[in-house]
Amino acid sequence: MEKAYKLKLVKEAIKSYPDFPKTGVLFRDVFEIFQNAQALQALKDLLVEHVALLDIDIIVGLDSKGFLLGPIISLGLAKPFIPIRKKGKLPGKVFRQNYTLEYGEDTFEIQTDAVQGKKKALIVDDLIATGGTMSAAEKLLKELGVVTVECLVIIELTSFKGRSKLEAPLHSLLQFN
Fold first, then answer.
1. Where are any strands of DSSP class E within the chain?
2. Neighbouring C-beta atoms of residue 40, cutoff 10 Å
3. Does the 3-176 domain belong in CATH 1.10.443.10?
4. What is the spatial distance between Cα 91 and Cα 170, in angstroms, rounded to a whole number?
5. Reported pTM
6. Where do the H-state alpha helices sit in the chain?
7. What digits encode the pLDDT tens for the residues 97-141?
């Protein structure tokens, strides 16, 4: 399959829900991709082919959809996968980073032992809007001496300008206004 066809399969598998979770929001549901084997294979190919060109040590996935995408890339490239989770979800020694949400604050955590000796990371999630969570992940890794080589998402909601909050380059497979 060529790249344009793979992107078409992925895009067609994303279902949109108007007014969810609240009025005025158009929710893009990537879970539909996982229900379509052909679209999932296309997504895997697109992600692995792109990331294979990067010089990285680890793949870091954000809670929670990054946990679906990260291992796909990890297995395809034989690179370790490390989760960044919401506060209180990881055992052992963790490092924390607070970040601001639209209506409050939250905290990300990563197990400090997981990144020891690792210097170059890819951060992956399903979507970027304002860039708050992705930026918090970058800061968390930076505090531990890990450089974010790239941030990778399936969907970029361009009207929110989240890319401008990131230090690392952002690669998005699909862009929506």
1. 15-18, 26-29, 58-62, 81-86, 94-101, 104-111, 120-128, 147-157, 170-176
2. 17
3. no
4. 30
5. 0.95
6. 3-13, 37-51, 66-77, 132-143
7. 998 876 789 999 999 999 988 899 999 999 999 999 999 999 999
Closest CA to 140 of 79, 85, 92, 74: 85
CA separation for the pair 177, 173 (Å, rounded): 14
- Give residues with Cβ within 8 angstroms of 124, minimum separation 6: 47, 59, 60, 61, 62, 66, 69, 70, 73, 151, 152, 153
Helix/strand/coil for 17: strand
By the 8 A CB rule, do 26 and 18 touch? yes
d(CA 62, CA 85) in angstroms, rounded, equals: 7
Q: Calculate Rg over the CA atoms of the chain.
A: 16
The C-alpha angle with vertex 42 and arms to 173 and 121, in degrees rounded to 5, equals: 50
Task: Report strand pairing: 81-86 vs 58-62.
Answer: parallel
Residue-wise pLDDT tens digits, 16-42: 999 999 999 999 999 999 999 999 999
CA 168 to chain centre: 13
- 3-10: list long-range contacts, CB under 8 Å, 24+ apart: 3/46, 3/49, 5/42, 6/42, 6/43, 6/45, 6/46, 7/42, 7/46, 7/173, 7/174, 9/36, 9/38, 9/39, 9/42, 10/39, 10/42, 10/43, 10/46, 10/154, 10/173, 10/174
